[in-house]
Amino acid sequence: MAVLFQKIPTLLHGGDYNPDQWLDRPDILEEDIRMMKKAGVNTATVGVFSWSALEPEEGVFHFDWLHKIMDKLYENGIYTVLATPTGARPAWMDEKYPSVLRVEHDGRRNHHSGRHNHCMSSSEYRAQVEKIDTKLAKEFGNHPGLILWHISNELSGECYCDNCKKRFQEYLREKYHNDIEELNKQWWTSFWSRHFNSFDQIEPPYDNGEHSILGLNLDWKRFNSWNMKDYMVFERKILKKYTPDIPVTSNFMKLFEQLDYADLAKELDIVSWDGYPRWNNDYETVADTAAELSFDHAVMRGLKKDKPFMLMESTPSLVNWNTYNKIKCPGILRASSIQTIGCGSDTIQYFQWRKGRGAAEQFHGAVVDHLGRDDTRVFKEVSEVGELLKKLSPVTGSKVCSKAAILFDWSNRWAIKDMQGMAQDTKNYEKEVLKFYKVHLQSGINADIVFPLENLSAYSLVVLPMCYTMSEEVGAWIKEYVKNGGTVVATYLTAYVNENTLAYLGGFPGAGLGEVFGMYAEELDTLYPNDSNSVLMKKGFTAPVKDYCELIKLTGAEVLGTYQSDFYAGMPAATVHSYGKGKAYYLGTRMKESDLIRFFTPIWKDSCIEKVDMTEGVEYLKRTAEDGSTFDFYVNYTANPVMVTLVKDGVDLLTGKSVSGEVVVEPFNGVVVK
Ligand code: GLA
After folding, report:
1. To bridge 595 with a disulfide, which of 16, 185, 363, 543 should be the other Cys (CB 3.0-4.6 Å)?
2. With 0-12 CB in 10 A as exposed, 13-18 as middle and 19+ as buried, what is 144?
3. Model confidence, pTM
4. How confident is the model over 520-554, as pLDDT tens digits?
5. Cα–Cα distance, 490 to 32 (Å, whole number)
6. Which residues line ligand 1 (CB under 6 A)?
7. Is residue 523 among the annotated active site residues?
């Protein structure tokens, strides 16, 4: 079984714990332990942002407090996720080594401030990090309570200092084989006299600098992500040198734009992330918010498909950084915790255990309020989660096994955003990927998120939404998949440009995919928000479409649907083509979710993917253990009891009762059938 931690082979419950903010209050630290046990907490993430408590002056280390805390936690059955404190720097460092401070897009160096404000390339910063991480690894590496290293915190940001500029130039030199003309060709620098004579002439895209070379913009994004990974690997290596057996993670932020997590995750042992959905907002249903959370979980699960992931942070009640900081209504924590486990997480962890008294996050939600009591609504709901996680412990280590997958690619995301064309307001790449996920979710199908070039052998269907930028290599990967019997559904905007944003010649989709799809898109029409068109599908329904319509010409594909208005009425809008042993569908326009479900229904059937009819507001998720036993999760995200027809009879882990046929799922609650 792929349990994450042999020392504690069960679901984890806990979160960020900042005892360093309470070192003058031993009574409170005592009380924390009592309350953690009461809430069913078995893990605490300690040390995030503790640098000034650990090294108050350069070279002066205070580890006693941390020893005491970790010992105490361990004696009480609570394991430690130990963070390197490198997310925020002490003042002494910035005073003495200004090169550690980040330089902004306009070329100005920041002052000492906040957190995540370092130059990842600064050798002075890295020297300080090496010193503290080495000390920590040596000091605590053998502690019996230590289960996981947590590198820094939510790595993020970009630095535009001269040092980073030089590293960018080196990165490009390597990528383009030290051949500046190769770069000029890929970046199409004959445009507007942008030709470079040497790598030394290239600058980052400063606010008041170069932005017209799309290849440069994209390579800068890639460089920044690579540089962050390089930094993360730097920390990882230090920890691994002294504690090779302690796994390493770094907490991600769902589809965070700046970092290609698919690339970073390869360097981590466990994927973890921080989830803060806007529950109970005024623009969507709770079930819609939950569907987005489900998607975010699927993205994180997709980063390491061979094991569960961790929900490292979530708020037990509210956050303090939204425009409106609404509290989570009763039951949401329970429902979302069951859902989170159903999506493949083996942990429910919070930010934060106890509210601090001051500074920026004093009113951020926590398990323990300023009130300090264990009979608050939030404390009781957290304790309830503690109880239900114990009941769900048989799920530990099992996996979500999907037959359907949806491709997501960070480079594509960056390139689409920067592409000059279409409509800036409606490109919506991320939203479209989410839409395809929801189409599956609403049909009771667990879909995985996949990333370019990964092994697709587990999937009978791969959806390729808006794959605008695509290398020949990725094109060949898709071609091979279809040739061997896979089914793909691609959309408008497939393979317009290569990985450096050079347009393909001879018809889109490029990257060698024309023969796979048996069609080409001659034009792309961008619709105004009030424009309308529709597609008459051969399956007998008419689907209104919006935003984008590609005008498709056939080179062998069969037409599945045609446009109904405008001068392109009667032209193909959706096609299918057999290629090798597989099938390649092409959808040249944007449909709404309900019509996509109709579009996909025969495709799922053809791909042996079972559709499960779910009542609205109920999410169905499934995990499978190594011995083949399954866990069916039904989560009710509505305020009413809902009747569901079970996919399989069994025992509900949450009640311990046998269930069969139809069962009632209570409001904001779940049924988990083993
Ligand atoms: C992030 C950070 C935490 C905290 C929370 C507040 O996830 O990692 O340190 O700031 O946000 O929501």
Report:
1. 543
2. exposed
3. 0.98
4. 999 999 999 999 999 999 999 999 999 999 999 99
5. 53
6. 153-154, 274, 276, 313, 319, 351, 361, 364
7. no
